[in-house]
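Entry type: protein chain
Record version: 2
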Amino acid sequence: LAMGTLRGVNEPLFLRPKAYALLSHLARNMGRVVPKAELMDVVWPGVYVTEDSLTQSVREIRKVLGEEMVRTVSKRGYMLAGEAEPPPEMSSQPIVAVVRFRNESGNPADEAMVDGFAEDLINGVARFGTVTVLARNSSFSFSSFGRGEWPQIRARIGADYLVEGSLRRQGEHVVVAVSLVDIATASQLWGDRYQSQGAGLFATGGEIVEQIVSRLVTR
């Protein structure tokens, strides 16, 4: 199922479409107890569902936004807590996850460099503000080794695209391989290989960030 993306304070939050539709209707009726039957008609128009579906969507909103966000009014329905304001904005930006890069040098001492390079890509994409990039603690739960897990990334952390790659020391140089992948189609949108030396690795990271952003904002 597709997910709605909410702009959180530190990183995106995710609701499934029905939960987002429920949240939106409650927000439009701030201060009013909305009957369950009305909510079911609005969120599932023309479809027969039981109250279990409604309860599940309420539970999802509370899990993402807090237990107190939706109040249950016994035998009547639900109402949204707090001051009257529109629901969180649904982002139209593409969402990308930079997964942990492979250390192809085989030297454990290079792990910090490899992880640091991928984290620099995350920070670089975030600075543009035109692409939503997931934080390291979310995206690094997947790695460039785990190709079999990539289809799960969309369902588990809500990403539409992923950036994967590897670093390998080669004498005085560091060879960087990187790919941008569309998770839904498992197709590679872009990929390249770079050879850097010393501080040139930072310039390489900047060029990769520009390539990622330019390809995603034009899709």
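Comment: The CA atoms of residues 33 and 111 lie 54 Å apart.
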